Amino acid sequence: MAAAAAAAVGGPQAPQPELPAPGLALDKAATAAHLKAALSRPDNRAGAEELQALLERVLSAERPLAAAADGEEAAAAGSGGGPGAAEEEALEWCKCLLAGGGGYEEFCAAVRAYDPAALCGLVWTANFVAYRCRTCGISPCMSLCAECFHQGDHTGHDFNMFRSQAGGACDCGDSNVMRESGFCRRHQIKSSSNIPCVPKDLLMMSEFVLPRFIFCLIQYLREGYNEPADVPSEKDLNKVLQLLEPQISFLEDLTKMGGAMRSVLTQVLTNQQNYKDLTSGLGENACAKKSHEKYLIALKSSGLTYPEDKLVYGIQEPSAGTSTLAVQGFAGATGTLGQLDSSDEEDQDGSQGLGKRKRVKLSSSTKDQSIMDVLKHKSFLEELLFWTIKYEFPQKMVTFLLNMLPDQEYKVAFTKTFVQHYAFIMKTLKKSHESDTMSNRIVHISVQLFSNEELARQVTEECQLLDIMVTVLLYMMESCLIKSELQDEENSLHVVVNCGEALLKNNTYWPLVSDFINILSHQSVAKRFLEDHGLLVTWMNFVSFFQGMNLNKRELNEHVEFESQTYYAAFAAELEACAQPMWGLLSHCKVRETQEYTRNVVRYCLEALQDWFDAINFVDEPAPNQVTFHLPLHRYYAMFLSKAVKCQELDLDSVLPDQEMLMKLMIHPLQIQASLAEIHSNMWVRNGLQIKGQAMTYVQSHFCNSMIDPDIYLLQVCASRLDPDYFISSVFERFKVVDLLTMASQHQNTVLDAEHERSMLEGALTFLVILLSLRLHLGMSDDEILRAEMVAQLCMNDRTHSSLLDLIPENPNPKSGIIPGSYSFESVLSAVADFKAPVFEPGGSMQQGMYTPKAEVWDQEFDPVMVILRTVYRRDVQSAMDRYTAFLKQSGKFPGNPWPPYKKRTPLHPSYKGLMRLLHCKTLHIVLFTLLYKILMDHQNLSEHVLCMVLYLIELGLENSADEESDEEASLCGPERCHDSWFPGSNLVSNMRHFINYVRVRVPETAPEVKRESPASTSSDSLGSLQSSRRPKVLQRENSGTAQVFSLVAERRKKFQEIINRSSSEAANQVVRPKTSSKWSAPGSAPQLTTAILEIKESILSLLIKLHHKLSGKQNSYYPPWLDDIEILIQPEIPKYSHGDGITAVERILLKAALQSRMNKRIIEEICRKVTPPVPPKKITAAEKKTLDKEERRQKARERQQKLLAEFASRQKSFMETAMDVDSPENDIPMEITTAEPQVSEAVYDCVICGQSGPSSEDRPTGLVVLLQASSVLGQCRDNIEPKTLPITEEEQIYPWDTCAAVHDVRLSLLQRYFKDSSCLLAVSIGWEGGVYVQTCGHTLHIDCHKSYMESLRNDQVLQGFSVDKGEFTCPLCRQFANSVLPCYPGSNVENNLWQRPSNKSIQDLIKEVEELQGQPGAFPVSIISETNLSKEMESVMKDIKNTTQKKYRDYSKNPGSPDNDFLFMYSVARTNLELELIHRGGNLCSGGASTAGKRSCLNQLFHVLALHMRLYSIDSEYNPWRKLTQLEEMNSQLGNEEQQLEVPILYHDVTSLLLVQILMMPQPLRKDHFTCIVKVLFTLLYTQALTALSVKCSEEDRSAWKHTGALKKNTCDAEKSYKVLLSFVISELSKGKLYHEEGTQECTMVSPISWSPESMEKYLQDFCLPFLRITSLLQHHLFGEDLPSCQEEEEFSVLSSCLGLLPTFYQTDHPFISASCLEWSVPALEIISQWCSEINTFTETHAEQGKALLIQESRWKLPHLLQLPENYNTIFQYYHRKTCSVCTKVPKDPAVCLVCGTFVCLKGLCCKQQSYCECVLHSQNCGAGTGIFLLINASVIIIIRGHRFCLWGSVYLDAHGEEDRDLRRGKPLYICKERYKVLEQQWISHTFDHINKRWGPHYNGL
Fold it and tell me: Would residue 890 be called left, alpha or beta, if left means φ above 0 and alpha means ψ between -120 and 50 degrees?
């Protein structure tokens, strides 16, 4: 078959012109069927030719691309109207031909049936949501699409969801990458047997048509690529790609048809014959020729050659020699670059502007050139990939190439092709402008290929993958090398990468490096690499480019003017390009059998290091004031050494170099440690912040185990093998503190300023402690390391689970075993830490779930050394110590300020035993002795920290002492050195008791020591810092050797010289240049040094005992404990010594010294016996006195400040308690002044700005600080108890019909349809949506003070979180957010007793008074007539209230601008505030007076403002509801106004609204008896409404029964107070109208099951009236300051009614309570009821249905709630993140959902913008009147919009460890946290978002 296809396609036949032109117009399907039949015949030559001709014509590449190239003219001229049409046509033809005459859709289905889909292979692009399961993955890069993940079973696995960055493909079904147990149901391996064999003729046409189609595509690509002089512009490339979109999509669709079609495509793409025949360009076809030429041009311009041009072809096996860099070429450093094209190099050169640092190029003539620039294409696939790269990896092409991967044959072919093009990819990447996108696309492909170990191995063997990768990386870095300036600037031959280049700055190299790391993770590939010496040499060359990069030079004079940020690039480069491949290789060197690999790496590493030392001309002194943090060669060497000893049982000495090399190796890492101390001592401050950044990054958790840890380890190795005296003196010299180590009280330091001495000394000692006590690479197991790291991090601070994972340096290679989340991590965590569940603080700040160290960890495992090593910020060390102190205090172990505890160490691995010799060398002992002496004598510059470290070192020495004491050893060995005159031996145990009598010191002449008479002794004049003569007292041997001078520096020099000389005699050819070091000689300017001899007469032991006295401040404080309790010596581990301060430490050390030797024990006892003479008082010089005074003064000032702060804090606390107190009912409103005295006292207010107190007056009014906000919370009440849930399927929808707001809206518009507008606006309240809520913090201020305060805020340039122009401010006292000031009405605050005395007037009299008072408009004080300040303020605050809400929430009247509108709005504001307060109290008043809302309420003041404005409008005088309520009318008046619209019948009025209208119409302050009168009258109306509603509810029979029973009792005495009588009367009255008639039968059946008993009726009536009673009681509480009684829920009605004065006082409570007993009728009940009912009857004559709907129903509103959310976040995410927007039908980039109503919105979506408002802001206005609560789907966080501001609230979904996952970065499963959601809901209902959340910013309508 294939042969036939080849024949059919092959042969450069001329196109056949004979075929008739109408052939094209023939029915495509018929042609296709005819051709298929022809081809199915055994002899198919004719059919093949015919098809060939047809395809020639249809797919001719000339027409469309000419059109594309020449633009419009061609398009007009071309047939078929433009380029698009011809291509459409061609595609149609192809589809027809493939289907062979049938329908294309059916064809697709048929092919799919033969899909043996064992692999998913779904390809996705960036930003796609995928899953990774570590439990199922074999390769760390494994990923699954959401569908396969959810179809598989991953319960309990370690998985996470992630957003793909570069794109990827689903690995389900691929057992090379993941375990089969994780496959989903679809891809659990199907055996190929049950898939039928593909019928031959199904895909026959495809085999003929596709080669032509693909060739056509390639021709397009060739045509479109014009290689002009400059790089082709992005625009042109994109244009071509857009034209090709349909073609590539067609190919992509083919790949999706399944396995059968993919294998055909594979055949076509990899068949070399087809390719050769079609593309060689040898035929007569001019078009093909031209196309081939373009292809050759493109190859050439890419710096590639077509192999025919070269004589030889084929890659020679690179031998070890060829791939090394020519080291000789370094000298010239300007060698030719070989054939590597330099066009792209030069243009970058200019752009860098490097100036002085010229780029260096290496000679690469020796390198294997064929890897870099030979490329030959032998199949369609190869050329397609070539063009894909040329066009910079268009997404469509990448997807097509990846979609083919499930085909195994293709996968291998494609991988080889990819490797073949690797060098070309690198070149294109370097030139690309869009390197980021391109990098992502490259990795998208390569990760699919190289994650498969089998495939990687095959390509490594067959295509030299490793050689190619290493060579390509080397080439890439060579383009940005510069000369190194380390050490010897002029003559250095070393080159390093320049971190300022784009290549490093933009991380352009990462795709190549990440591929390299990926293939090194496969054992088989890594082994090949480690065996290949040539590759190792090349790789070490590559690594050496990074050795010493980003060199820092210390600025000594002025601050550097430009802080370079190149260090980011440098650290990233070392980590990614050097360290990660190193970890990859190390992971394969785990067992003994791999020793050889380690030897290879170590060998070439040492060679590279030797070359490096030679290249930078290094001898023995590092150049001063320079430091580089990058020594990758040192680190490779160190890590392989560590691995060799730890895992491979190699003998350490066999891989160590000679002493001289070790001395060189230690210099640079030691230099880094010293520089760290310098940086922290602020000696590098002139280099800017970036140097601090480097010091931090060096120890930061992601870098430390590739940087500081190997460095310290290497120093430990060097220390264990070098002479200890040499090492110790080197350390002090590097840290520049040698001159400080003198017994003299004054000294000259030639290299260090005095202010840095102390911190540098601390640095040096701390470094020694770390060096000697760290065991990370010296014997700790992996689990111990993990535990130590974890303890250190937890001790600094409590940590969340994710931050712990992040902070613990894991082995960067994912296969290393310590995988985050692996079993060992979790088990160690649970062993060392306790989990603290997330808690809420009352301030609203939310905590995450934290882990905190267990008590026993603090007790036994707290390790300050590890903490110091791992802290990025110095403050963390302090934090750890503070926490430790707190633990000791709390557990009662130690009350004072403890010192860092001494921790026992893991035993050393035998290979490193030599390290402990540092502790037993005389140099160290001299230093320790000197420092102890200086501390005892109070010399300056010594801190407690120094003492702490000195004692730590002594203790380390005692813990690690040699077993037997030898005093002789010193005298036996070698020539006596000068420090032998100090101590006899080198063992610390014996040296501790050695007394030193005299020391000769060199001091400045001014020093106090000079004046003393010195005993005669040999003086010495060479420069030295310490000298002593010794007379051992205890040892009976008299030995008075001649005194010598001891100098640390001289010692070190001598030592080094010895070694150099020894090695130079061995290797005579090495020229040694001993450097004379001038910088240590004393400069001439220094004052004369003279020699003085000090009498010391101390030993280390005696110094320690005196120190004990000094620290404890008592004489003879130390008493050897073993004298009392001999047991102590037997059981040394005594808990009382493990925690404590310096005194404890000294005691512990003395005990250990006594334990180690009897001799010491005796001496300690002896010293203690002598009563120690007091330490001589030090002579204090004037200068010192001054500094002491200064210190003392400072100390005192500090104490004073502390005291003040404490006082302030307690004051603040008490203020907060009074002002912010939430629950305690004792302290009522801050301004309230109780008025128990009979006289009328005016309320007094404190102004929080000017601090004056006084009453509020007309001309200087005081106001309350208030926040006005529009609120729709009330409108969100629904009538069902269960809150609605958030929809998570298409079926679930939330409709707003049943919300309180909707119901009220419908009612108002219904009333407006039938009744007079002005009367409608009195009958209901608005403000359910967009009502104005007023709240206050309770503080008051003068209004004029407030104005000046606002002025000052306006001029304040600081960015506030609020907008002053909108009147916003924060309360000057408590900083609560506010936006207006509510004036306080002059007069007493709580209405006085005068008004509250009960009067004995009858209700009829009171009714008259009320009516008269409502009629007088002027009943207000003068303020209305004369414009006073107060009235002006009242006006302005009213304006504020109006402007708080949108116009649509204020204007309900039919005639806009009518005063009725304002009238309605104003009394509704009062209603809104009362209703909201009721909700805050939980919907009822059972809890009584105590409540947040009541405490800081401003309703009283608000009422005054509203009343003032309401009285400006009078109600229609002829219609006042009051009259209707209290007077019987003559019947005829009703008939008069038939023609105009009716008034609203009184029974349709909302009683609560009437109450507010009546009260606000009264002159203020209101009298209590008038208030009660109004309430009584309204209660009668309310009760009647209740009866009416009840009568409508029950069935016809019930009605007639009640009508009957009630009628019988009509004439009893208390008929007016019996609900039965009243009910029967209501029924009989209403039966006259049509209210009951109209209902159909269905209504009855619905309601009939309810049988009404007297109890249930009573309950119904009470429930109907309760809402009114609650609001009224609240109102009474605010107006008259009466307390609300608390009660049980069932007695709420009776308690409230008696509190309101509805119940007669003599009412007995023994028989059951009846609501009707509260009624008090002012006119005969039945008459007035009859009158009210007749109004309804009149209306129902015409509108029976509406008449019924308008009846007031019982209140059924439940408290408002947010939507309920599902338990698991994934349910929300899966539904919403793919949901399309209803407006623009696209999937939004940032989808969000409203938690109040469930609406789906686009955050920041421009598609849904309306008049410059984005959708979220718009929705927040419509749904919440400016408050919106949105859940951001892709981030799991909640965002709050409040007006013009917004804030991120946090997340209500937490993972298993109780922490948020903002932006779903970790992708762990998240679960709802009910407590948090409750807090959110609470803040919404109580309107406290503004107060509780602190971080607000403006959103500029862009959300």
Answer: alpha
